[in-house]
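Narrative of activities, Objective 1.

The group set out to show that a structural description can be obtained from nothing but a protein's sequence at a throughput compatible with the screening campaign. Below is one input-output pair from the validation batch, recorded exactly as produced.
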Amino acid sequence: MENFDRQKRAFFVKTGLSVRPVMRLHKYVGNLRKGTESWRNVSEHCLVEVARVDVLAAVLRLSGGIRGKLRIAAALHDVGKREEVAAFRAANETENSAWEACTEASRQSAEIMKRAGFSDDVIALASIAGDHNSFAATLALAEQDVLTDEETARLIMSYVDDMSAGSTWATPAVPLPDGSLQNTVDRRLEAGEKDPRYARMNEEAREHFAGRTMYAMQRETAHAVEQRLAALLSEKTGEMIDPKRLPEWIDLRIRERIAAEQV
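Output recorded for this entry:
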């Protein structure tokens, strides 16, 4: 276990170096500051997502250019997290719309990326992660008959963010009394749904999703993408992948990469 921990540190140091321009931006906006005001956990979370998107892109044999953009987008996606949290806090303390506040925070985050010199296609890919305005389009994309590499990358970015809680490993899917499985995606979205900070946003979404809450729409989208990605992976690998166990499958591939590190 001690050796694996050293290998894990080496693996994520290399991962950070591979997206060095983005990590410089994380430092610039204050995410790597030490002390009580540290947001380092945001940067660590982004690096975990880099590893996860890269596993999927590699197995699905996306083009090198798309794979590289996906890695950069994953590293970028929460660079404006401080603004998002501040926007939610301000909306909850006033009568302002939480939906509009979050939309504006996303716009500001995209502007930070733009000023830092990242391309429009990378910014669009990064902005998909957890974007309430993208759920319907992502759901439609998951049900599309044929996907380009760019469209597959959009599904990967969306799904990896939905399954990623902090920088922790995905936990195993467990059976429920009705016979279904509850996985990491279910648990993450359930926790968000119970968080009072997102209660107003969740309800305001009914105006945009034909009466459905934000988390109901996000859950449907996440599982549709999950099923599509599992089918694509099964086709590429010849391995039958249970969609509900996809988070575990992804992290097992990362563990294998870590175990191959020479330290």
